[in-house]
Amino acid sequence: MTSAALHRDIHMIPKKAIGGKGSYIFLEDGQKVLDSTGGAAVSCLGHGNEEVTRAMMAQMNQLSYCHTAFFRTDPYEELAGFLVDSTGGRMSKLFVISSGSEAMEAAMKLARQYFLELPVPQPQRCRFIARRRSYHGTTLGALSMGGHVMRREPFEPILLPNISHVSPCYPYRERRDGQSDVNYVSRLAEELDAEFQRVGPENVCAFVAEPIVGAAMGCVPAVPGYLAAMKAVCERYGALFILDEVMCGMGRSGTLHSWEQEDVVPDIQTMGKGLGGGYAPVSGVLIGNKVVDVLDKGTGSFRHGQTYQGHPVSCAAALAVQRIIKEQNLLENVRSMGALLESQLRSQLAGHPNVGDIRGKGLFWGIEFVKDRATKEPFDPKLGIASRIQDLALEPRYGISLYAGSGTVDGVRGDHILIAPPYNTNKDEVILIATVAAKVTQEVFRDLEK
């Protein structure tokens, strides 16, 4: 079989999906797959939600597109109001685009413009500090911001030179034996402070972090107190605090915004995936009052624009998804089903000799695999452990998606899988997901021993 489409692997044509309903995707060959990862933590309402599709059709029948330089639309206005209200007014503007990478690019440019429009401009601020083994997107600015070694490597010569990286908050591997959360956070804050000093604190635009690291490390939540400590360092030197919630936000971790759980409000927040649940390409940048006030008193405009920003159909989809989450109280289901998923994963997998760590929040869970639990030694990357688990799980006898990730440990070595079912999943599905994940894991490692 050949294809004119450039698939992710030019030598492998994926199976064809022809439909979907609830937590399941239907394939051309008759197979039914339990989408326990929501794609890449995207399909927060599952597939085929008729209320969302009706909202999109209604908007298409009214107006499919208009340019935001000329016109505004109700869906954009209503979505912006909804999300600003969801922050208690602590964020005051929403910028809507199409992908997480675009959201990060916009956040970077907005941070730069903020310092140019201060009453006393600070044009020397052009540096960013992010974290190793992070992921913020694939466009050049977003890829430069991220610390994902394998994704960066081919493009290093053309990546931005004004971004440096500090340690992630990764307690499983990087917290010292016996070290408390408080002391671990203090150490990371000192490292960030030292990096500000190294590059010149007066030169830094912002520090950027994911509250829960998604694809790059496999659902690693920051320990309590970490976000507040990092924000404090930023405030000490007048830099902005940017949180990337493209994967972990919009309800995925049990609250609409991950930062709500510690009430650490960012200056700029990116969002995506769960914003529109996959029903339309949509992402967003929520902007804090401090930044908006400076723009308001300065030029009054964000010097950035894209053809499809504020797209009315995408906004209608996102608004419908968010209203359903709120009206059906799905965040409570995320928390309760998340607790069940955690307990099931731990009871069925925590004792496995090759399972090093099980971590996550809400309906966002990762499993890290190791060659040796005592030393936490990872497998040789050539073995492709996570990919083997993903591929086996998709076979008809299991029929489930498990999202594979690699480079967990140092950007090259390390394997994990990610599990992120829809917010309206139920007890039976959660138990099935954990049970099949355990069976697949056991089979892969049995075969490896042979």
UniProtKB/TrEMBL annotation:
GO terms for cellular component: cytosol. InterPro entries: Aminotrans_3, PyrdxlP-dep_Trfase, PyrdxlP-dep_Trfase_major, PyrdxlP-dep_Trfase_small. Pfam families: Aminotran_3. Its cofactor is pyridoxal 5'-phosphate. Keywords: Pyridoxal phosphate. Gene3D superfamilies: Aspartate Aminotransferase, domain 1, Type I PLP-dependent aspartate aminotransferase-like (Major domain). It comes from the Eukaryota. SUPFAM superfamilies: PLP-dependent transferases (SSF53383). GO terms for molecular function: pyridoxal phosphate binding; transaminase activity. Belongs to the class-III pyridoxal-phosphate-dependent aminotransferase family. PANTHER family: AMINOTRANSFERASE, AMINOTRANSFERASE, CLASS III (AFU_ORTHOLOGUE AFUA_1G16810). This is Aminotransferase, class III. It comes from Byssochlamys spectabilis (strain No. 5 / NBRC 109023) (Paecilomyces variotii). The lineage of its organism: Eukaryota, Fungi, Dikarya, Ascomycota, Pezizomycotina.
